[in-house]
Specification:
The protein has helices spanning 2-10, 13-21, 61-66, 76-84, 88-98; strands at 26-27, 33-36, 47-50, 55-58. The protein is of the alpha+beta class. It has a single domain (2-98), classed as Zinc finger, CHC2-typedomain (DNA Primase, Chain A). The protein has a four-stranded antiparallel β-sheet. Helix 4 (76-84) crosses helix 5. The protein binds zinc ion. Zinc ion (ZN) binds at residues 38, 40-41, 43, 46-47, 58, 60, 63.
Length: 99
């Protein structure tokens, strides 16, 4: 599973989410949270990225309920899997190629 560790260490979640959603994220003043438009429900300022923990997610309960895994915070692998409708192992394989 060191492959997964490499993905977490080498891919910046904020850069990745920004690039793959095409949305602009703004930092909450003095905090490690960045907010922007959710790529899943399309609501603005509800999708958060935490640059300290490497997780992201949507604050909307409906959007969370629609997510595989019941809306738990997503790491870059879960995010990629949901965005591109692939399973986690496919996501790991795809992201591994980016390293
Ligand atoms: Zn959402």
């Amino acid at each position: 599973m060191s492959f997964v560790k490499d993905i977490h260490e080498r891919i910046s979640i904020l850069e990745f989410v920004t690039k793959h959603t095409g949305h602009c994220f703004r930092q909450l003043r003095g905090r490690e949270y960045w907010l922007g438009q959710c790529p899943f429900c399309q609501n603005k300022k509800v999708f958060w990225v935490n640059t300290l923990t490497g997780f992201c997610g949507c604050w909307r309960a409906k959007c969370q309920a629609d997510a595989p895994g019941g809306g738990r915070p997503m790491d870059v692998i879960n995010f990629y899997a949901r965005l591109y409708h692939v399973d986690n192992s496919q996501a790991i394989a795809d992201l591994g190629r980016l390293l």
